[in-house]
Amino acid sequence: EAQVTQNPRYLITVTGKKLTVTCSQNMNHEYMSWYRQDPGLGLRQIYYSMNVEVTDKGDVPEGYKVSRKEKRNFPLILESPSPNQTSLYFCASSLLTTSSPLHFGNGTRLTVT
Amino acid sequence: AQSVTQLDSQVPVFEEAPVELRCNYSSSVSVYLFWYVQYPNQGLQLLLKYLSGSTLVESINGFEAEFNKSQTSFHLRKPSVHISDTAEYFCAVTCFPQGGSEKLVFGKGTKLTVNP
Fold first, then answer.
1. Do residues B18 and B78 touch, judged by C-beta distance below 8 A?
2. Residues 6+ away with beta carbon under 8 Å from B17
3. Rounded to a whole number, what is the distance in Å from the CA of B115 to chain A's nearest CA?
4. What residue of A is the nearest CA neighbor of B39?
5. Pairing mode, strands A108-112 and A10-13
6. Reported confidence tier of residue B2, pLDDT bands at 50, 70, 90
7. Does B32 contact A at CB distance below 8 Å?
């Protein structure tokens, strides 16, 4: 089954404790992206990647890192999480940049205390 | 900067009533247009898209949207909604600005609640 898999679904952590949210797609998509969803703000792009070893900042990259060492994986790294990073995070992928429809994972709800 | 405006944050309707979810965008250049739906505790799913050709596009579950270039709108409609249509709906626009790279921009979403 074609899908984007994120883990974990739920994560509670404390300020400053490094964490990684994993994302994997099995559709051989070149484009991958991370979004955060907050009430009243919709979806905001954090980082995106056009292909292996090619990543770029989205609209709200501060406090986040990403890597794209393999085509299928695009982990999101929070080196020192803060409470304002409490949010619902989505990974998405598409065949060709943003002109192709995005396939989304089921989300990771992160709480930073 | 490109922007997408969904005029209603919440839309309550009764079952079998018609509904229209409004979406306007700010762009004077070519665009691709999308509607995504998010059911509770799930990620977004593509509902329908406009890339080119006929300005009226339809989804498999009875929704339709019409691209209106002069009004820069892409409103989503359904003539008769079901309880199962309760979800949040996001309009998204890919813009191709001159001298810049293409960018996908999402609206802030409209929560549709269908009541019995």
1. yes
2. B80, B81
3. 22
4. A106
5. parallel
6. confident
7. yes
Own/partner long-range contacts of A11-15 (Cβ < 8 Å, ≥24 apart): A11/A108, A11/A109, A11/A110, A11/A111, A12/A110, A12/A111, A12/A113, A13/A81, A13/A110, A13/A111, A13/A112, A13/A113, A14/A81, A14/A112, A14/A113, A15/A80, A15/A81, A15/A82, A15/A83, A15/A112, A15/A113
What tokens appear for B28 in the block? 């004077």
Give the separation between CA B7 and CA B57, rounded to whole angstroms. 21
Residue B6 is which amino acid? Q
d(CA A111, CA A86): 5
Among A6-15, A37-46, A79-88, A95-104, which stretch is predicted with the lowest mean pLDDT?
A: A95-104
pLDDT digits (tens, 9 = 90+) for A23-79: 999 999 999 999 999 998 989 999 999 999 999 999 999 999 999 999 999 999 999
Q: Tokens 């099995």 label which residue?
A: A26
Contact at CB, B106 and A104, closer than 8 angstroms: no
DSSP A73: B
Helix (H, G, I), strand (E, B) or coil at B81: coil
